[in-house]
Amino acid sequence: MLRKFIPALLFVLLLGGPALAQIEIRAPGQQTIPLALTEFLPLDQGARPEIAREINEVLAWDMDLSGLFNLVDPAAFLGDAKRLGLISIDVDFGEWRMLGAQSLIKGAYSLRGDELVLEARLYDVVNRRLLTGRRYVGKVDDLRRMAHAFADLVLQSLTGEAGPFNTRIAYISNKTGFKELYLMEVDGHDPIRLTDHRAIVLNPDFSPQGKELIFTSYRGRNPDLYRKEIYSGSEARISNRPGLNVSGRYHPSGQEISLTLSKDGNSELYLIGTDGSIRRRLTDQWAIDVDAVWSPKGDQVAFVSDRQGNPHIFIMDAAGGSVRRLTSAGKYNSTPDWSPKGDRIVFSRMEGGRFDLYTIRPDGSDERRVTFGPGNKEHPRWSPDGRFIAYSSDEAGKKAIYIVRADGSGPRRISPAGGDCQHPAWSSQW
Question: Which SUPFAM superfamilies match (predicted)?
Answer without folding.
Answer: TolB, N-terminal domain, Tricorn protease N-terminal domain
